[in-house]
Amino acid sequence: MHIRDPIHGAIELTADERALVDSPQYQRLRNVKQLGFADLAFPGATHTRYAHGLGAMQVASKVFDALAPQLDLELDDRARFRQTLRLAVLFHDLGHAPLSHATERIMPPVEALQLPEWVRGEGRRADHEDYTLKLLLDSGLAAEIRRRFGARGIEPAHAAALVCGKPPPGANPFQTRGRDLFPVLRQVVSGELDADRMDYLQRDSFFTGVNYGKFDSDWIIQNLAAVERAGRVYLGLMHRAVFAFEDFLLSRYHMFLSVYFHYTSVGYEVLLQRYCDTSSGEYSLPADPDAYLQHDDVTLIAALRASKNPWARRVVRRQGYRVLVENTPGDEGQDLERLEAQIEAAGIDAFTTVSPPLRGAGALGRGAAPLGVVTARTWSADLRGILPTWSSCSSGSRSWAASSTSPKRWLRSVTSTGC
Fold first, then answer.
1. 195 Cβ partners below 8 Å, 6+ apart?
2. pTM to 2 decimals?
3. For the domain that residue 211 is a member of, what is the CATH number?
């Protein structure tokens, strides 16, 4: 079976993969928009996490096929690792809440999900990755994965391990010929150059009509390398493709500026957060995985329309706040404290938003490994060393600071900032 995709063309699915795509766990993503409220500013941005998962799986397959000749795998191991990677990337966003990240603040404590001990967290609120793991490990989807792929040595825990970055209990399923392939496979799922980013940048650029998310993915994939150190295999990038990686970083930076931190979507996320904080549990997300499947963008919008909460009404009626001041890169900054004092004295409700910082490995996700640059001499450079240092990137109030250092003379310094 093939699925036509505007970004990658024909995406091939096996019969077993199609059965998993048709599962209610994955079909829910048809009604979860990739960019939340962004379509209020970019009308074309109505694409979903359903399509993104398929596209990211296609990218991951290309990456694995480029690396496989370097890995010298037995045919059975090659097929098993490739299939496990495809499933992990396909399902990596399975647990995203309605309108994406905006409603994670009403998720229950992570303990309520009763995750297995090896992936369990404590003392915090659950997030979309916790729900992804719950659906992968403890739902009808898990049983279907075992039924269709168990005979090939693939378990739901193997895909979950690549998603969360923690090896599964028991014997290492990613060990072959004395080498551990877990690091390199994990980096394809979540890393500096992962399949997730390589799909969503191109997809978000296409559907928003913004041209900044484009980069030379073919050249990057052709120049990926598998590097073994102390019995573990990591993802590397040939030095001749560093400039393409710089372009990838710059593309991501521009997408954050123009799309992901657009004041319209950020402003409506604040209104939705105020609804969640003041509605006394009027809308909540359940810990039970089967009940969670009933919650998507349609469910949330219906709840907002039925609510008498003033913040819900503002969201439904598109009564967003006006932007008064926006700091952009290179600005000296506005006297926000003075402006806030004047607004407060006038009795006008207002808010200031400051985006969370993205710094090197901090933006990679849990358990992610850095990317190395392979040269004729060594691969020891850590690209986190040339990633920019972010101060605060925001929509309502933005300020950036970039630092570019070269850990080796042969590695060009990144002079542009990037997310």
1. 56, 57, 59, 60, 63, 89, 188, 189
2. 0.86
3. 1.10.3210.10
